[in-house]
Amino acid sequence: MSAPGPLRVEVGIPLREFDLALALEVEAGECLAVAGPSGAGKTTLLRIAAGLLRPVAGRVAIGEEVWLDTAAGRELPTERRRCGVVFQDYALFPHFSAWRNVAYGMDGQRRERRRRAQELLERFGIAALADASPASLSGGERQRVALARALAAEPRVLLLDEPLAALDPDSRRDALRQLHGLLAELSIPVLLVTHSYDEAAPLAERVAVIDRGCVVQAGTAAEISARPASPFVADFAGAAVLYGEATLEPGGLTLVRLRGGGEVRSTDEASGAVAISVFPWEISLQAPGAETENSMLNRLGGEVDSLTPVGNRVRVGISTPQPLGTEVTARSAEAMGLRPGSLVVAAWKATATRLIPLTETSRG
Fold it and tell me: How many CB atoms lie within 10 A of CB 233?
């Protein structure tokens, strides 16, 4: 399976509350995740690439082959684009068995189509379910049938629309591992859209974060996490976001006086209004008065206002001068006797405190 070149998508289309206006390029063998909140324009972008929706202005090409060029009046129909598409609900034919879903659209005699479908199902570890109906399959099994069907026609591009959204948490973790392995094997461009940064980060070589129809930041997941371009991106990537006023100090640190009280320090340089981003795993929870590591310059006292179990960890919401969130193991939460109303101190290093200068339009 190969592609002659990158997938390029340029679109302009008015949506209900804003215009979708962006340009993306995905190299052969690369997965680009377009991540953003619900209603940001992600699925519209995917539908345009697949030929299921025509933009007011746009161009879609794979290598030198142009699938859509509104300026030139060219539009290749969906069935001739050789796109493998996995929809959010998988869109399997309920009256077809698993193998017949995979073989749908294949050329050749029934026996040959069954053999090829069986090979794909075997690749996904579900060959024994070839004769099963979609209704009898688990969510993860339906996803694998949908992926096998998308690859059956040897597509030049694979388009994934929220491929894990329909799964329960346990199935999602297993499907995430399997999908990561599959994408690593492909030599075609893969465009994935998702509302979850936690899914985009492990699956894609690059992530484009979009909001209200525009790309607000693009890069590797590590680059985006290390240097979020805005409070929106930091929050979307899972960081806690605080606001304050920054002043440079002697010795290379920046002091930030937080809105509502309290102060923190950062090794980033900034002055004026800033947003602070710090990831939950970089925050240590301590009892008031407990000894802390010398390297943890930042300490904010507060009160626990929520505890949310997630697997073997607990997400802890804290009321400091501004809301703050972190995670601890379930064992640590029990040992500390955490409950709503508990007094705690959130501590983290200055090196983990990322500063985002605020413009007039980005102030929180």
Answer: 23
Cα angle for residues 28, 33, 36 (degrees, 5° grid): 155
* Separation of alpha carbons 10 and 338, rounded Å: 50
DSSP 8-class letter at 303: E
Helices (H) and strands (E) in the chain, counts: 9, 21
In angstroms, the CA 41 to CA 49 distance is: 13
Please name the residues in contact with 41: beta carbons below 8 A apart, sequence gap of 6 or more: 15, 18, 20, 22, 210, 212, 213
272 φ/ψ angles, rounded to the nearest 5 degrees: 90, -160
pLDDT attached to residue 184: 87
Residue 3 has pLDDT above 50, yes or no: no
0.90 surpassed by pTM: no
d(CA 159, CA 31): 10
Checking if the pLDDT of 304 tops 60, the result is: yes
Lowest-pLDDT range, 111-120, 133-142, 143-152, 160-169? Answer: 160-169
Residue of 37, 13, 8 lying closest to 210 (CA atoms): 37
Question: Quick check: 294 pLDDT over 70?
Answer: no
Residue pLDDT, tens place only, 335-345: 999 999 999 99
Query: Distances in Å between the alpha carbon of 77 and those of 51, 130, 178, 352?
Result: 6, 31, 31, 50
CB-based burial, 6-27: b 16+ in 10 Å, e otherwise: bbbbbbbbeeeeeebbbebebb
d(CA 158, CA 141): 19
Indicate whether 265 pLDDT > 90: yes
List residues bridging with 182 in a β-sheet: none
Q: Can you read off the two tokens belonging to residue 77?
A: 């129909």
Order of strands, edge to edge, in the sheet holding 313-319?
284-286, 343-348, 298-310, 313-319, 323-329
Name 204's Cβ contacts closer than 8 Å, sequence gap at least 6: 31, 32, 33, 192, 221
Tokens coding 101: 């879903």
pLDDT digits (tens, 9 = 90+) for 49-58: 999 999 999 9
